[in-house]
């Protein structure tokens, strides 16, 4: 099985006056095609920095980042922008919809940057919105939608280009518990049916348990890397109690979700 993303000895150092802040400290991580990985960690653990590097929004100080076989860490800003357009999808906690655009127009937007003809954009955007249950909300503005419906539009926008890697940053963080469960079930269904590789940052172990594998960061290092409980792994440890192990956390083979019984 091939890996969509590979990180080797990845480091990110910020200069804060005369001090150096090591946000990422030698990250080793591989994510296989179709795998769903949850990243957890306490505040300051490096998970947001890692997501920014994975999303080509920030460059590592050193190390190797391979995305779909390409050395992303060696690319310039223009090349990184092209990678974001063509190979990445994003789902944000705050939805990040254009408030003066309809649901259909919001989902069309990433295809505009790809140069896809308008008729094809509309066809694919309609189909994506129907898939997330918003066939009757195509012409609604974000202000006319509930929080859960806005996140469904954001999911349709993220999946419509069939990205190689989808990155989700606390995708249910602004939703109530009932809506969170609905959106998470939809997200995992879309990921599974499209065989999309996905990395999600979350602080909630119940949400992380939906993933195939759970990775926990501490002080910019991977200290936990195990299959999730839903894939036969152990109970997820509390992120505030886990610390650096005596030996580096082993990196298991990419874990896939268990097959449903026929």
Describe this structure in words.
- The protein has 262 residues and is of the alpha/beta class.
- The chain has one domain: P-loop containing nucleotide triphosphate hydrolases (Rossmann fold), CATH 3.40.50.
- It contains seven helices and ten strands.
- The strands form two sheets. Strands 6-7-8-3-9-10 form a six-stranded mixed β-sheet. The chain has a four-stranded antiparallel β-sheet with strand order 2-1-4-5, covered by helices on one side.
- A hairpin with a 2-residue loop joins strand 4 and strand 5.
- Helix 3 packs parallel to helix 5, helix 4 crosses helix 5 and helix 5 runs parallel beside helix 6.
- The longest helix has 18 residues.
- It is globular, with a radius of gyration of 18 Å.
Short description:
This protein has helices at 47-54, 77-87, 103-113, 118-131, 147-159, 177-194, 205-208; strands at 3-16, 19-32, 36-41, 62-67, 70-71, 88-91, 165-169, 197-201, 213-218, 221-227. By secondary structure, the chain is α/β, with parallel strands linked by helices.
């Amino acid at each position: 099985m091939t890996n969509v993303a590979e990180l080797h000895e990845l480091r990110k150092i910020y200069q804060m006056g005369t001090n150096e802040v090591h946000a990422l400290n030698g990250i080793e991580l591989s994510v296989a095609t179709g795998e769903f990985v949850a990243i957890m960690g306490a505040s300051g653990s490096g998970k947001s920095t890692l997501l920014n590097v994975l999303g080509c929004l920030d460059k590592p100080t050193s190390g190797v980042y391979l995305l779909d076989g390409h050395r992303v860490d060696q690319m310039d800003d223009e090349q990184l922008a092209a990678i974001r357009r063509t190979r990445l999808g994003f789902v944000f906690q705050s939805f990040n919809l254009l408030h003066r655009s309809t649901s259909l127009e919001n989902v069309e937007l990433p295809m505009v940057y790809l140069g896809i003809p308008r008729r094809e954009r509309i066809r694919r955007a309609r189909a994506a919105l129907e898939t997330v249950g918003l066939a009757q909300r195509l012409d609604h503005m974000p202000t006319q939608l509930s929080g859960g419906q806005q996140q469904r539009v954001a999911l349709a926008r993220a999946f419509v280009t069939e990205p190689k890697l989808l990155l989700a940053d606390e995708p249910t963080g602004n939703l109530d518990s009932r809506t969170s469960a609905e959106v998470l079930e939809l997200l995992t269904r879309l990921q599974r049916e499209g065989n999309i590789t996905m990395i999600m940052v979350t602080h909630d172990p119940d949400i992380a348990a939906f993933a195939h594998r759970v990775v926990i960061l501490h002080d910019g290092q991977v200290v936990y890397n195990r299959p999730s409980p839903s894939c036969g792994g152990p109970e997820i440890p509390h992120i505030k109690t886990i610390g650096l192990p005596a030996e580096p956390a082993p990196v298991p083979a990419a874990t896939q979700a268990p097959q449903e019984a026929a």
